[in-house]
Structure formats: C-alpha cells, structure tokens
Design a protein that fits this description.
Length: 564
C-alpha cells in the first residue's frame, strides 16, 4: 500500500478542486496539498467539457440586484448570505481567469458581450472567446498556476472511504483504477470537491456519480436539495453545450404542428426560460400527441452565430458528426428530447465549506447550492468562488489542526473495497441500466406524482438490496464502474425519497399532484443518516427571512401554467 501524508487532501480535480488548491497554496505556500481525481491527471472534470461562459456581477449591476433576481428565480429557496458571498467574489474570479490567460468575447468597441439569462432583470453570462474550448482553456491555465505552486496532482485513483479519528475525517483510502495499487492518504483537512451525483448520461455527464457524497453521508454529513435534479434539453443525436446562449438570442422549441409551445405555457417568458420548465412543457406536448419536439434556430441573427459555432474540441466533433448525417444545427430543425443528467443535491455546508463533520469541507457542486434551476455560467462562477473560499478556509484550519491518528481499520476497509473483485456476479452496466430505467421515465424525473415516485422507490430498494450487493468486477477498472453504480443507486434513492417528501411544486421540483406552492413550507429539505442507508431521517430548515435583507415578493414559477 502506498501512503501519502499531506496537509490538505482534495477529492476532485475539476473547477472547485483546482480553485481550492490554488487559494490554499496562495495563503499557505508551505502547505502540502494533494489533488486526487478518478479521471486522468489534470483533465479538469466537467469544466473541460464546459463552454467557458461565466457569470459575474460587473458594473453597472450590483450584488443586491443579482441577489433579488436569484430570490425570485429560486422561488424563495435562496440562501441570501451565501449568494452574497458568491456574487461579491465573482468579479475577482473572472479577473483571475483573464489574468491567467482566458479570453472572453468582446465586441468591436471593446465592450464585453453579454447574454441575459432566463428573462431575469440583471443576471447575465459573459461568453468565452473560443466556443467549445473555453472550459478546456480554463483548466489548462489553472493547472499552470498549480504547477508553479508545487501542488501535487494524482489521477486515475478512486477514493472509496474516509479515514476517521472518532467523528473527524482525516484522510481517505482508495486504489489505482488501472493497476489496482492501494493508496492511503493522511491529511489534516479534507475537501470534497468531486462534483454532484448523476446518472452517467451523455458526454461530460458520464463521470459525476456521487461516490464522494455517499462517503460523506456515511461519515455523518447532511444532504440537502436531493429532490432536485437537472433534466436538460438535448439533441437526440448528439451532445451540445450552450442553449443558455441560444435561447436568449432567438432559439425556440416547436412541436409537430410548428407551434412555439412555450408561448402557451408562459406568455411572459416564452422560450427564453429555464430548461426545467421547458422539459415539463415538452413532456406534456408529447403526452398530448404533439411530439416530436424540434429546435428552431432560424431567428438568430447572423452576427451572433460566432458565439455558437464551435471552433474546436468535443462540440466541433459532434457538429461534424451531425453534418455527416446531413443535418446542420444552425440551418435545420433538429429533434431534441429531455435528458436526466445530474443531481442538484449535495452536502449541506456554509459559505466556507464547513459541513459540520470535523475535518471535512465541501466545495463546488459537491455541496448543495441551487434548487433545481440553472442559469448559464452559474456553475463555473459558483465552483470557482466556493472552491476558492474552501481553500482559504482550509489554510486557516491548518493553524489549529494537528495531525490525526486514524482509528479506522485500514485492512478491513481495503478488503471491503476490493471484495467484489475476483468473484462472479452481476455486471455493473446491467444494474446501471436497471436504475436508469426506473428514474428516467417522465413521471419520475419531470412530472412527478406520489404513485410514480412510490413505485420507483420500491424498485430502487429492490435494486439496492438485491442487485447492488451481487455485482462483481473482473479488474480495477470495472471495480471503479461498480462503485460508481453503487453510488448512482444511492443518489437515485435519495432523489426519489426526497421528491416524495416535498409535496409541493417549487423551483426545479414539479409535482403534478401538488402543482402549487405550499406557502408554509419555504424550507430546505435535509436528510441525515439514522442508522439506515435506505430510510433517511428528514428535517426542514426554514429559510430565515427575518435574517435576510430581501423579502420574497414574487416567484418565478408564477410565470407558468401547466394545467392541460
């Protein structure tokens, strides 16, 4: 077993993990910082797949204006103090990116190009100069900074369980997913920055599966926002990133009758709205016999096409594949479908990443931030800011934290991790497909009802109790896939169970049997372990409006009418 001792161990080398390492190294140049990622070294996680568009509060906008937009957009489920911290620091992170060498689109007069988001008054994104490569360049520039800071970075290692001293997290155990070599990491502070859970769908959403979330849950962390998931609009034949730019510039979805159906469901916002509301409408249109749904870009002005056409990277590959099929995204109407992608739920933490579990911080999308609705560029903003803040916090904690002596039975935990290897059993992909078949139907993922959610929960319990323990892995690579699938099952159960518990419609959570808000339930839904991994204990944390500066006076969901 290879043992590595460090001051700060970071799980995940995406946006949040890279920023956490950078800020910690800036604050404590003497600190030994290690990033461990299950993907290739320095690949950058989902940021590599992102378009590179970034949200930031720039003049003449104010932080207060943006906070009020998000209070409205989140249907009141907005942590105003957290949002203030994020938005206040967003300008600095954008400036850092530009200082590192990233470029954002500017018009001929030198002013920044921006695209307003979701029909909100102030929230806007700033597009990357190179469409399709913006996120990739962000990663390369951040990695260059970490090389100068002497941050150690390791890839192809899956961490499967935390080391603990009593209640304190003080490291992790894992293995090389190619060779099977066992690893032990001892650390004073651990930062979970490995992203959210998910369902291993198209392109960049194949890797977030929630194993770190499950590890943290087992260590005593609280989960929040598990009833929310990202159900996105996707082309049927290929993956694409950037409809957050397309819709405000004139793109629209139309049904088989050629109708821009969002104008009917939301006369005020029309197609320029959050994709979660669009997918509800898409499901209703198909259910009513007005499918398939196609994407119409004919109204976008020619001068804006430069923001959309990919110059390089994976989107250029997909664009070329589509062209080979005789279709042009910017000329032809192409069929689009809803797609379940990732979970919005995560670890409950404060602005500085403190989870309540000693020694364990959470950053980026590993923590719960937004309630199931998403504005373009929001993730790149929040992961950079929250990663940076968690890194600062880790640097402070080092001054008051001594090295621990774990009481974890390392040999027993390693044996538990490797137990599925070398035996015969179910192939992970068959179990994964079964989980997907339970969660993906529209009456579980989009238009939820008590009956459909209860049916899904029953089937997921069967999978977790009978199929997950029966999986087997032939080698370390498939052991990685098996552990990911186990986490997908866990995330799925938490998602369905929390969706049953929230008996109202709010933000990205739509209950067809409870289609309106419960005015007495403006609260975050939290889950904690009570001795059982399949029967979580729920409690609600009311949104503390008396402590906040802005009242909830309007709701984004009031722009929509989905009654048929």
């Amino acid at each position: 077993m290879k043992t590595i001792s460090c001051d700060v161990l970071i799980l995940g080398g995406g946006s949040a993990g890279l920023w956490a390492a950078y800020s910690c190294a800036q604050a404590r140049p003497d600190a030994q910082i290690v990033i461990v990622d299950k993907g290739p070294k320095d690949w950058g996680g989902l940021m590599t797949m992102a378009g590179g568009d970034f949200e930031a509060v720039l003049d003449p906008d104010t932080v207060d204006q943006w906070i009020q937009d998000f209070v409205y957009y989140f249907d009141g489920l907005c942590d105003q103090k957290l949002m203030e911290e994020i938005l206040t620091r967003s300008r600095d992170r954008l400036a850092d990116y530009e200082r590192f060498g990233c470029e954002f689109f500017r018009m001929e007069d030198g002013k920044r190009k921006f695209v307003r988001q979701r029909g909100l008054d102030h929230v806007k994104l700033y597009p990357a100069q190179l469409k399709g490569r913006g996120g990739e360049l962000m990663v390369k520039n951040l990695v260059r900074q970490l090389q100068e800071c002497k941050v150690q970075r390791l890839g192809r290692i899956l961490l499967g369980t935390f080391l603990r001293q009593g209640d304190r997290v003080c490291g992790a155990l894992g293995f090389d997913t190619i060779t099977g070599e066992q690893y032990r990491f001892d650390a004073k502070v651990v930062i979970a920055a490995s992203g959210m859970g998910g369902w291993k769908t198209s392109y960049g959403k194949n890797t977030p599966t929630g194993e770190t979330m499950q590890m943290a849950w087992e260590a005593g962390a609280i989960l929040q926002n598990m009833e929310f998931a990202r159900v996105w609009n996707m082309p049927r034949y290929f993956g694409w990133e950037g409809q957050t730019v397309l819709m405000p510039l004139g793109a629209r979805f139309v049904n088989r009758n050629g109708e821009s159906f969002m104008d009917r469901y939301s006369p005020v916002l029309g197609p320029n709205t959050d994709p979660h509301y669009t997918t509800i409408a898409m499901a209703m249109e198909v259910r009513a016999g007005r499918g398939p749904i196609t994407f119409d870009l004919s109204r976008i002005q020619q001068e804006n096409l430069i923001l959309l056409r990919p110059q390089n990277g994976w989107q250029k590959l997909n664009y070329d594949k589509l062209s080979d099929l005789g279709m042009d995204l910017f000329r032809d109407s192409t069929e689009w479908v809803p797609q379940m992608t990732v979970a919005y739920g995560g670890l409950r933490a404060d602005a500085w990443g403190n989870t309540g579990v000693p020694g364990l911080l959470a950053a980026g999308t590993a923590r719960a931030t937004e309630p199931g609705v998403y504005a373009g560029g929001f993730a790149l903003m929040t992961t950079s800011v929250l990663g940076h803040m968690a890194g600062e916090n880790a640097a402070r904690l080092l001054d008051e934290t001594q090295a621990a002596r774990p009481d974890t039975d390392v040999d027993a935990e390693m044996a538990r991790l490797f137990e599925p290897m070398g035996r015969t059993g179910l192939f992970y992909k068959d179990v994964l497909h079964h989980i997907q078949s339970v969660v993906f139907p529209y009456d579980v993922s989009i238009i939820k009802t008590e009956e459909s959610l209860a049916r899904a929960r029953k089937e997921l319990l069967h999978i977790i109790e009978n199929e997950v323990p029966a999986m087997a892995a032939a080698d370390p690579h498939y052991l990685l896939k098996l552990i990911e699938t186990r986490a997908v099952a866990f995330v799925s159960l938490m998602y369905v169970t929390a969706s049953l518990e929230r008996r109202e419609t709010r933000a990205g959570h739509y209950r067809e049997d409870y289609p309106t808000r419960n005015e007495n339930d403006l609260a975050w839904l939290c889950l904690k372990r009570n001795g059982s991994d399949t029967d979580p204990e729920f409690y609600r944390v009311p949104v503390p409006l008396a402590e906040y500066r802005f009242p909830v006076t309007r709701y984004y969901q009031d722009n929509f009418n989905f009654s048929e």
